[in-house]
UniProtKB/TrEMBL annotation:
Recorded superkingdom: Eukaryota
Paired cysteines (S-S): C146-C173
Keyword Glycoprotein part of the UniProt annotation: yes
Protein keywords: Disulfide bond, Glycoprotein, Repeat, Signal, Sushi
Organism the protein comes from: Hypotaenidia okinawae
PROSITE patterns from the UniProt entry: SUSHI
Entry protein name: Sushi repeat containing protein X-linked 2
Pfam family, one: Sushi
Endpoints of the signal sequence: 1-19
Chain ranges of the Sushi domain: 66-116, 117-175
InterPro entries in the cross-refs: Compl-Cell_Adhes-Reg (IPR050350), Sushi/SCR/CCP_sf (IPR035976), Sushi_SCR_CCP_dom (IPR000436), WD40/YVTN_repeat-like_dom_sf (IPR015943)
SMART domains: CCP
Keyword presence, Magnesium: no
Length: 210
């Protein structure tokens, strides 16, 4: 007798938990109580970033270098978590962060580039001039000269240094002191009329009529 009743009970239970799916809505209802339940999408499989050899774009710094350390070790330079130290060649200055890291967003934490080191243009020298070996670039040397009759006082040469400043200070051209001339008396004219002239500096002046 028990064997004949069991199939009926199973059928009734199946009817009680039957549900209706509403296609495209993301919901379904159970027929026995008319309650609505939200369908949960299956979770996406987690991506193991450590197994991706190249996660961020490879760093390429013009006139510079990136020294990278990856959690994976070895020669990996752009995997997730890789940290790179940035530097520039001599004569160039780094603009931006000196250290960047590869983030889960597949981007580096910052951007940097190398800019050529330049000094400001030297001002003109009154009654003088200068000639530079490489313009205003680093290590450029500028030599000063003065016009005839003037003497240079100060640094004869200045060099553009790594910090973008010129060595030394700006020289000047000063007038050379003229030679000293003693006063002299000169008598000119005939026996009856003689004139006495005095040389004072570079100017002759008559002082006495005889």
């Amino acid at each position: 007798m028990a064997q004949e009743v069991a199939p009926v009970l199973l059928f009734v239970l199946a009817r009680l938990v039957s549900s209706t799916w509403h296609e495209g809505s993301g919901y379904y209802t159970e027929s026995h109580n008319n309650e609505v339940y939200v369908e949960e999408a299956p979770p996406e499989p987690a991506l193991d970033y450590r197994r991706v050899p190249q996660w961020c774009a490879t760093l390429n710094i013009h006139r510079g270098e990136a020294t990278c350390y990856s959690p994976r070790g070895g020669t990996y330079r752009s995997s997730l978590g890789t940290r790179c130290e940035l530097s520039c060649a001599r004569g160039y200055r780094l603009v931006g962060p000196s250290t960047v890291q590869c983030l889960p967003s597949r981007h580096w934490s910052g951007m940097a580039y190398c800019r050529q080191i330049r000094c400001h243009v030297l001002p003109a020298v009154l009654r003088g001039s200068y000639v530079c070996s490489a313009g205003v670039q680093m290590d450029s040397r500028c030599d000063y000269t003065c016009q005839p009759g003037y003497q240079l006082e100060g640094d004869r040469s200045r060099i553009c240094m790594e910090d973008g400043r010129w060595s030394g200070s700006e020289p000047i051209c000063v007038d050379v002191e003229p030679p000293k001339i003693r006063y002299r008396l000169v008598t000119c004219g005939t026996d009856r009329n003689a004139y006495v002239w005095t040389l004072k500096g570079n100017v002759w002046k008559p002082t006495l009529v005889i």
